[in-house]
Amino acid sequence: PGASESSPRFDPAPEMRPNDDMEAHGGTYVVAQGDNWVKIGKRVGRQWKDIQSANPQASAGLRVGMKLIIP
């Protein structure tokens, strides 16, 4: 896929290996068109309130391309 990819991306933390359990490690997530806190939480397997709390920079709302910390 090219640079104009529109699907959401989940970038695991650098120390993660592909088979690591996401419950034990966080990472980052790049907001895509149509995302909301609940959708992101379901996609990455976390409670949306925990993701929202870890990202005070998004208190005014999510924006496409915004990089969120996944606790």
The residue ranges in which pLDDT falls below 50 over 5 or more consecutive positions are 14-24
Number of separate helices: 2
Order of helices and strands: EEHHE
Query: Number of DSSP strands?
Result: 3
Query: What is the residue-mean pLDDT, rounded to a whole number?
Result: 78
* Percent strand: 15-25%
**End-to-end CA span:** 27 Å
Largest beta sheet: strand ordering: 1-2-3
Shape: globular
Main sheet? 3 strands, antiparallel
Secondary structure class reads: alpha+beta
**Helix share bin:** 10-25%
What does this structure look like?
There is one protein chain. This protein is α+β, with helices and mostly antiparallel strands. It has two helices and three strands. A three-stranded antiparallel β-sheet has the order 1-2-3, with no helix packed on it.
Which labels suit this protein?
alpha+beta, 17% strand, 2 helices, 3-stranded antiparallel beta sheet, 71 residues
Secondary structure blueprint with pairings:
Layout: E1 9-12, E2 27-30, H1 37-44, H2 48-53, E3 67-70
Kindly summarize this structure in a few lines.
By secondary structure, this protein is of the alpha+beta class. The protein has two helices and three strands. It has helices spanning 37-44, 48-53; strands at 9-12, 27-30, 67-70.
